[in-house]
Amino acid sequence: MDYTTARRRMVDSQVRTNDVTDLRIQAAMEATPREIFLPVELRSQAYVERELAYAPGRVLVTPRDFAKLAAIAGPQPKDLTLNVVCGSGYSTAILAQLVDMVVAVESDETLGALAQECLNQIEVNNAAVITGNPAGGAADQGPYDLIFVDTVIEKRPDALLAQLKDGGRLAAIFRENGVSSGVLFERSGDVFSCSKKFDASAKAVLPGFEAEKAFVF
Question: What is the pLDDT of residue 214?
């Protein structure tokens, strides 16, 4: 399979056509071999517009949803960034091309090791993968200019928001009543605003990010 051509087509048909106009994001996605972050048996599907479950509880969201989430995050060259639930490392690889430094948190030690291996393979040298509870973030490495949550959440991520710098942003896909949306939280002092930016198709929610179940008589 010609992965280089597949990447170019992905950007042309799934990124540019969905109002992702940031040329840096386009270039990063076209340059990054998405297939190496997937098991061998899934690599031929790396560039399709479909969520790919590649490990227990881990999903590679569609290129369209990922690109739009990266766009609303507004990564800047000097940003210290926290990548929450890095999985096998694809989101970390993209962010590392857009910001100064990425701290990536993954709860699965095996996946974290795989992420580091993949990042080393493509010579990413401004990212560090640590094992920990993604919902708790990595406060000792912050505060952060940007937090990028690479999973679907169903409740406000207060522990992560507390790790933002004043003026910092947190981008995530928020799911409520069966509907997913790309949202951006922004911090101003002790006040956090949240705005919906786009409709998303992603559905998979990890433990720690689910809404609390209401008691029913």
Answer: 55
Residue 217 is assigned to a structural domain of this protein: no
What gap in Å lies between CA 41 and CA 11, rounded to an integer?
23
Within a domain: residue 212?
Answer: no
The closest of 54, 180, 179, 188 to 170, measured between CA atoms, is 188
Within-domain flag for 30: yes
- 3-class DSSP assignment, residue 61: coil
pLDDT for 57-82, tens place per residue? 899 999 999 999 999 999 999 999 99
Look-up: residue for tokens 């940003």? Answer: 79
Range of the domain at 8: 3-200
Least confident of 125-129, 203-207, 213-217: 213-217
Number of domain units in the chain? 1
Q: Ramachandran region of residue 89, left (φ > 0), alpha (ψ -120 to 50) or beta?
A: left
Domain assignment present for residue 211? The answer is no
pLDDT at 1: 84
Find out whether the peptide bond into 63 is cis, omega within 30 degrees of 0: no
Looking only at the bridges linking them, the beta strands covering 101-106 and 127-131 are: parallel
Q: pLDDT grade, residue 204 (50/70/90)?
A: confident
**CATH number of the structural domain spanning residue 119:** 3.40.50.150
